[in-house]
Amino acid sequence: MLKLNAMKKITFIMLIFTATVFSAMAQNNFVEGQILNDNRGVRGVTVKNSFDNRKVTTNRHGNFRVRNVRPDRDTLFIELDKQRILEIALDGDNHFNINMRNDSILIERDRIQVLRPAHGGTMISRRELLQGGDTNLLRAISNRVPGVQFRNGNLIIRGATSIRGRNTPLYVINGMQSTSVPTVSIWDVESVEVVKGPSAAIFGSEGAAGVVVIRLRTGAN
């Protein structure tokens, strides 16, 4: 009887110890990072953990730290603004830097860098543009994006027409908008995003025929 009671006490103590250890481990697990806009810290961005909906906001330098996370299974939801919520699976990583630009979002994590579209469109990296071997930028874009055609020296996005009857897209080059055919060399391009459908509404009526957002490499004119 005494041995049985002793075993029960030992089992109970081990359960308490195990629960305490796991609780401490959960509290010590955290993910941290920085939210930037053109390399400047952004204050007040909400970062939420999928595990317990715990929320934090970035400080004046754009830094954040979320505790009680499970890096191998949890997801972060980052509310960049009212229209954009970035969803990042941790996949074992504990650190992220997120740099917002006019036409893209660069995610730097522990192991890799990921370029994501900023406007819900189709993103084409520099490497993908050059893979096809075509040195004409617009033709290279049409070869990479379904529903985009290269015709008469310009692009046409299938099913998209502006209220003025224009069927060629709006071009946004490093934040500058134009309806003219761009004369940019493919070698100067860092990335391209093709935006069409409802996602293009943020560009107003000029974007009704689709939008091609071009980001140039640093130092390119």
Structure in words:
This protein has 221 residues and is α+β, with helices and mostly antiparallel strands. It has two domains: 2-117, Sandwich (Immunoglobulin-like), CATH 2.60.40.10; 122-216, Ferric Hydroxamate Uptake Protein, Chain A, domain 1 (Beta Complex). It has three helices and 17 strands. It has helices spanning 2-28, 126-131, 137-144; strands at 30-37, 40-41, 46-49, 55-57, 63-67, 75-79, 85-89, 95-100, 104-109, 113-117, 122-125, 148-151, 154-157, 170-173, 176-178, 189-195, 211-216. The strands form four sheets. Strands 1, 2, 5, 8, 9 and 10 form a six-stranded mixed β-sheet that branches. Strands 11-16-17-14-15 form a five-stranded mixed β-sheet. A hairpin with a 3-residue loop joins strand 9 and strand 10. The chain is elongated and about 55 Å long. Mean pLDDT is 77; it is low at 17-27.
End-to-end gap: 87 Å
- From the coordinates shown, what is the CATH architecture of the largest domain? Sandwich
CATH homologous superfamily identity of the largest domain: Immunoglobulins
Kindly state the percentage of residues in helix. Answer: 10-25%
Let me know the average pLDDT. Answer: 77
Uncertain residue segments: 17-27
Structural class: alpha+beta
CATH topology title of the largest domain: Immunoglobulin-like
Number of domains: 2
Sheet with most strands: 6 strands, mixed
Overall strand count = 17
The best one-word shape is elongated
Order of helices and strands: HEEEEEEEEEEEHHEEEEEE
What's the helix count? Answer: 3
Give me the Rg, rounded.
24 Å
Instruction: Indicate the proportion of strand residues.
Output: 35-45%
CATH class of the largest domain: Mainly Beta
